[in-house]
């Protein structure tokens, strides 16, 4: 190790041991500390050497499968992990689980590679922060006769659109295509315990898409996606989730599959525009006559232009429109609202609003896409939660989650600020956000991905090549979304996108869909140290029309260790 590196390691060790990093004896709501920086670099020489960490070491490590040969969980069987945010439950926090349980978006090689909800189990990290994981079939999650598989799926395969016929074979027009909101994609963003429900009652926030606007059935037409946010319920600790029941022309495939299945199901969808509840769903593959009326899967947040309107126009939208990459946070710290009301806590959903030029955000700086937030009061007795969108000033009392107007989540203070990932003129973008609560500082933390021409930390666009970094912002009160601080970059997280030759739409980054957690903490609650889990690779397929056989490098589900530096306020 050279002299510079040796000095840096010594300084880093002093920082970790300094009073600045320790929680003072009088730390309390009356004498709190504050977050001053976050890093994913440390002095462990078993880490990677990367430009972003300078003389320190990048803590990045692939999550491995147990045993030999040494391989990532993606190589071992979960090839697509993870296609959205993930949720990690510590031992003892979800019933009687003795290991860490990971709820994430993935598929299973040899069983069904299509993306759905998978569950992994892990004993935890080793002394260097290395995680191993495997399918949680021993705990009762996705244990099928054909092998480990998905426990929640869309009703149709991602690549297919339903036939335009009814159960008698009578034809529909293109404008009458199936409007089920989660027809082609139903993938978890966050799984959380519902404190207003009974033990074992979980809720899942997920992204649902309908990719069949303007199509007559069969193979779908490329990027043509209407994206909404859904809620699904589980009554048994997340082992089973709602599956659409067979109805009319729709003959549902058994999990872990989706329609169509050759020789078993035809090419029809459930025709359930806003989802289904009670008798219209099954509990996994078990279809009982007494499914509770408040059990199901349903749409809660959708764009200001309805899917019905676009479907009846019968014209493909040629892109992504709506809410992508949702995540959820249950504010069990602060149950009141801005009007002084008390009751069950709110659940907040953060998503990436994509306008596709159809309904841009009302933004002074011309930003068309950005992070957006909505919330609902949890109520275990209600059939469905009702969400209100942040409109730039408050959350309306009248729920407007389905179809209401949209506004950016972050205040305009960062507009034009390259260092704060707010410079729309240089094509900076914010996506894949999530909220957590840092217990030692009594602050809410927003984590998101900033995509930028050059490293934002350098203060100005410094490259013609895009890269991405993790950013964070803090807030003392989620009732007031205008209270988010000026975003700051997390040290060591920036990397230039690696492009695959001969493509223009496939850029690789080691940091998509970051989910932050601390050991032995409930999901959404943090200490000043822990792990960020994420996907390293491409966000989507890379094939181009003139180059259909370009291979996509494998995704890798990975982790980094983070350290939050604090100081007195």
Looking at this protein, list some descriptive labels.
mainly beta, 34% strand, 3 domains, disordered N terminus, 569 residues, 9-stranded mixed beta sheet
List strands and helices in order, with pairings.
Blueprint lengths: L2 H15 L15 E7 L1 E2 L14 E2 L2 E2 L10 H4 L10 E3 L10 E9 L3 E11 L11 E2 L7 E2 L2 E2 L11 E2 L23 E9 L8 E9 L7 E2 L5 E10 L7 E3 L30 E3 L3 E3 L12 E6 L5 H7 L6 E11 L15 E9 L15 E8 L10 E2 L39 E10 L4 E11 L12 E10 L12 E2 L5 E2 L1 E2 L7 E11 L7 E2 L2 E10 L17 E13 L1
Parallel strand pairs: 15-20, 24-31
Antiparallel strand pairs: 1-33, 2-3, 4-33, 5-6, 6-7, 7-8, 9-10, 11-14, 12-13, 13-15, 15-19, 16-18, 17-19, 20-21, 21-22, 22-23, 24-25, 25-26, 26-27, 26-28, 29-30, 30-32, 32-33
Tell me what the structure shows:
The chain contains three helices and 33 strands. By secondary structure, it is mainly β. The chain has three domains: 1-61 and 412-569, no CATH class; 63-150, no CATH class; 152-409, no CATH class. Strands 12, 13, 15, 17, 19, 20, 21, 22 and 23 form a nine-stranded mixed beta sheet that branches. Strand 6 and strand 7 (112-122) form a beta hairpin. The longest helix has 15 residues, at 3-17. The chain is globular. It starts with a helix and ends with a strand.
